[in-house]
Amino acid sequence: MTGPTDAMFRPALMTILMLMVTLMLAPPLPATADAPLVVLDRTQLPFDLGPGHPANNPARAANAPHAAWNSAGNTANSQAIRGNRPDNPANEQRVIFTSDGSVLGYYAPNAGGVLNLFDLNGRRIAYRPARGTQSLFTTQGAWCGTVDGLRDGGMVLAVTPECARLFVR
Question: In this structure, are residues 160 and 152 in contact, taking their beta carbons and an 8 Å threshold?
Fold first, then answer.
């Protein structure tokens, strides 16, 4: 068996390029802005964005759900604190939405730099660890997707179908 060929990566590259062009033509988003959620086919992702890359591996200690800053036991990740609650006015500027405009939830960073994703009821769905990866992980530690930062400070959340379904339970 030979290594990967350019032809294997062309569909993923074209998808990413089309998404980037679309986002570049969109009006600029402020640093705190709504985040579009797209469902991805992880087999189409480049290696460096997928769960096979060592930095994105769910087994990596810094990505684990029991790591101090990622932990559900850390009050900084709890719905109980004002910054993470659905009724916090700041979260009205951090909406997670789909291409058809449906609102699925919101995101809130914690003091340690972890990015938490919540559903509309304030249930924590996923997180991005503070350092070393752009990957998202479910609260159980499964690889969930990736966060792509935009040049204007906004971001796009690209998640697996399984992760997207967690928002609508």
Answer: no
Q: Please tell me the distance from the alpha carbon of residue 97 to that of residue 90, in angstroms, as a whole number.
A: 16
157 neighbors 136 (Cβ within 8 angstroms): yes
Which of 60, 76, 64, 39 is closest to 167 using CA atoms?
Answer: 39
Side chain identity at residue 79, one-letter code: Q
d(C-alpha 38, C-alpha 24), whole Å: 16
- Residues 5-41 have pLDDT tens digits of 555 445 544 554 444 444 443 333 334 578 999 999 9
Contact criterion met (CB below 8 Å) for 138 and 125: yes
Q: In angstroms, rounded to a whole number, what is the distance separating the alpha carbons of residues 121 and 131? A: 27
What residue type is 94 in one-letter code? R
Q: pLDDT tens digits for 103-151? A: 999 999 999 999 999 999 999 999 999 999 999 999 999 999 999 877 6
> What CA–CA distance (Å, rounded) separates 129 from 90?
21
Instruction: Report the residue count for the chain.
Output: 169
| The model's pTM | 0.80
Q: 159 - beta bridge partners? A: 39, 145
